[in-house]
Design brief:
This is Membrane dipeptidase. One of its GO terms (biological process) is proteolysis. It comes from Draconibacterium orientale. The protein has helices at about 1-10, 15-25, 25-35, 45-50, 70-75, 95-115, 130-135, 155-165, 195-210, 220-230, 250-260, 270-275, 280-295, 305-320, 325-340, 370-375, 380-400, and strands spanning about 40-45, 80-85, 120-125, 140-145, 165-170, 210-215, 235, 265, 345-350. The strands form two sheets. Strands 1, 2, 3, 4, 5 and 6 form a six-stranded parallel β-sheet that branches. A three-stranded parallel β-sheet has the order 7-8-9. The longest helix is centred in the first third of the chain and has 24 residues, at about 95-115. Helix 4 (about 45-50) packs across helix 6. Helix 8 links the parallel strand 4 (about 140-145) and strand 5. The chain is α/β, with parallel strands linked by helices. The protein is globular and about 55 Å long. It folds into two domains: about 35-280 and about 325-400, Metal-dependent hydrolases (TIM Barrel, Alpha-Beta Barrel), CATH 3.20.20; about 280-320.
Length: about 400
């Protein structure tokens, strides 16, 4: 390589090509990452902290693990939201209490690992924290809560979770709950959007300066939230339905409404949200079998049984490797939003450790590949900075500024 580069240096006409050849796209992308603030707004790593005792202070390997502090540094990722995820179960008092306790365990575990490795990362709660921690060479770990199920019907729990460091709540997950209807509940809508309690939750989150996450919620729930919220809302991990036709993704009209609201859609790196699946493969059939368990029996299982199902889900990648979408496919979604409403309304939420991962972006260490693809397509550094964190931080800051 050294001799080749020396030779090319003598050829003035090839100097531009030499830069790309010797340095490589990843090198250019990393230089951009050093200058800008980069944020991933959704991962499910807290599940792995509890289920498998994942050590985020050590470098792990995908697909078993996609997020840890060393790989965040390697990939130039400054901040990430650790989501305290709870699956939706029948809304009994016991199940709600169990979900409440599980969410608290994930929050405390996140704080515990940040304290253990406080030379590498800290829990962050304010928009400006990421810039401060970046200067110190540390990762900013924000906390979100995926699914409003742990709230039950107790409005005071919103403030309780806020005081524990939670800065967004994904209002529901794969099934309807007491807050709103889900985009994927097999029984269809229950509340015709936000419930009466859900409207109180939106108002309370506005009052506290807490981000409202519209990923997973039904289309009608989304429009209800946008109409009610006095501040911008965001989708922490959703993609474009015009490209991948999953109900979890957002339609053109929804993206336009989100932009008008001042919010942002964070493109999700989960395969079915990036490209429509090939339904003819053995992998797809096995995946559907496990999804069926998630959708029909998972809620009634014990924590040990749920952990076993998650283990089988992780083993799919080893037994039935999947041809995953690429970074180029992902950036197609970013392009689409940019062309539809502008570059000010799109970002990235990987869903790593919760299903997210691309063929050439398997974990946080490979996130510069997304930047390299944007550079290849002619994005300016200013535009890339907006996609990687600027747009989200604008929303975050406005939500905090307008709290009551």
């Amino acid at each position: 390589m050294g001799k080749a580069c020396s030779f090319l240096l003598m050829v003035g006409g090839l100097l531009a090509g030499l830069n790309g050849f010797c340095e490589g796209k990843d090198g250019k992308a990393m230089e951009v990452h050093k200058r800008i603030i980069t944020i991933d707004t959704h991962c499910d790593t807290p599940m792995a902290l509890l289920d498998r005792g994942l050590d985020v202070g050590e470098k792990n390997e995908a697909p078993g693990s996609r997020v840890d502090f060393p790989r965040m540094e390697e990939g130039g990722l400054d901040a990430i939201f650790f989501a305290a995820f709870t699956s939706q179960r029948p809304r009994t008092e016991e199940n709600t209490q169990n979900a409440y306790e599980m969410a608290n365990k994930m929050i405390e575990k996140t704080k515990e690992v940040c304290q253990k490795y406080n030379n590498m990362a800290e829990v962050a709660t304010a928009p400006e924290d990421v810039a401060r921690l970046k200067k110190q060479g540390k990762r900013a770990i924000y906390i979100g809560m995926e699914n409003g199920f742990p709230l039950g019907q107790k409005l005071d729990r919103v403030e309780e979770f806020y005081n524990k460091g939670v800065r967004y709540i994904t209002l529901c997950h794969s099934s309807n709950n007491d807050v709103c209807d889900s985009s994927t509940d097999r029984k269809g809508p229950e509340h015709d959007g936000l419930s009466t309690f859900g409207k109180e939750v939106v108002q309370e989150m506005n009052r506290l300066g807490m981000l409202i996450d519209v990923s997973h919620i039904s289309d009608k729930s989304f429009y209800d939230v946008v109409e009610m919220s006095k501040v911008p809302v965001f989708a922490s991990h959703s993609s474009v339905r015009a490209i991948a036709h999953h109900k979890r993704n957002m339609t053109d009209d929804m993206i336009k409404a989100l932009a008008k609201n001042g919010g942002v859609i964070q493109i999700c790196l989960l395969d079915d949200y990036i490209k429509d699946p090939d339904t003819t493969t053995v992998r797809y059939q096995k995946e559907q079998e496990i999804r069926n368990i998630f959708n029909t029996r998972f809620a009634k299982m014990s924590e040990e049984e749920q952990a076993e199902v998650r283990k089988h889900w992780r083993e799919l990648d080893e037994k039935y490797p999947k041809q995953l979408p690429t970074v180029a496919d992902c950036v197609d979604h970013i392009d689409y939003v940019k062309n539809l409403v502008g570059v000010d309304y799109v970002g990235i939420g990987s869903d790593f450790d919760g299903g997210g991962g691309l063929a050439d972006c398997a974990d946080v260490s490979q996130m510069p590949n997304i930047t390299a693809e944007m550079l290849k397509r002619g994005y300016t550094e200013e535009e890339i900075a907006k996609v990687w964190g600027g747009n989200f931080l604008r929303v975050f800051a406005e939500v905090v500024k307008n709290r009551q």
